[in-house]
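Hey team,

Filing this mostly as a record. A colleague (T.K.) asked me to run one chain through the structure pipeline before their review meeting, and I want the input and output archived in the tracker in case anyone asks later how it was produced. No errors, nothing strange. Just documentation.

Input sequence:
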Amino acid sequence: MPNPFSRRIFLKSSISAACAAAAAPAWSGADPGATSKELMTPGLVWGMLPESLSIADRFKLAADAGFRTLEAYTTEDEKDAEEIKRAAEGNKIRITSVMNQAHWKYPLSSADPEVVKKSMDGMRTSLRNAKLWGADAVLLVPAVVNPQTRYQDAWTRSQKHIRELIPLAAELKVVIAVEEVWNKFLLSPLEFASYVDEFKSPWVKAYFDVGNVVLYGYPQDWIRTLGKRIVKVHLKDFKMGKGWDPITAQFVNHGEGDVDWAEIRKALGEIGYSGTVTAELEDGDLNYLTDVRKRIDKLVLGI
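Output structure:
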């Protein structure tokens, strides 16, 4: 499966190129007196596990590195989906979310009905994957603004099609989690909040990526503005180039960039966030993945 982080890891490459309480079973039994950091769980995306390994060995590697949650990718093959389910259960790893794989190549904002159909089919598969694996959210990049797609059209078209998906999401009890990425769309926290609120549905929430907004904002501000709309969090750091040169800027490992992790931790606590905090970095071996988890423990959980 493709690693989406590889498409985003360097800005210079890019330039050149909650859900309802009942729908969150993993946290519904939590101690109401516990702090947010005690409820947050470090996770990693599927693409951080080397493709050279089998499905079972990839889950074992995640478990050996100390992770107990994982974000899987859309899987169309039913046998592979079942194998992923067995491997997750066998290694005591909970699949908490699914990263939809159809939204970049086939955006919901397209004017082409065939493109939209492929995008919708991908989301339906992702939602059903989530149900099979016990995940409570599917990550969706809602739209892509480009020379062919105006901003207003991206907003209107994507909302129309997402509304068509809400009945299935409600039936399966899986949240559609909209993420902000470098798609020239949802460029401020106020706009992101408004976009989510207009659905007036508990089945459409925000998937917030800490590193994606450093170029044009402050992650802690976005967290405080989005508040309870946030159902999932992606973790990566971002380092601006010398003199904040966007050409030499790049995504980096946690703690090596310009993200103020103390403020991130504080902001998540203020909004009472109690979900997964999922690393989205390059793949690597056991030592690397163990180090990533320890960085999350220190920088995000404060332990």
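Quick notes for T.K.: The first strand starts at residue 41 and ends at 45. The CA atoms of residues 70 and 300 lie 17 Å apart.
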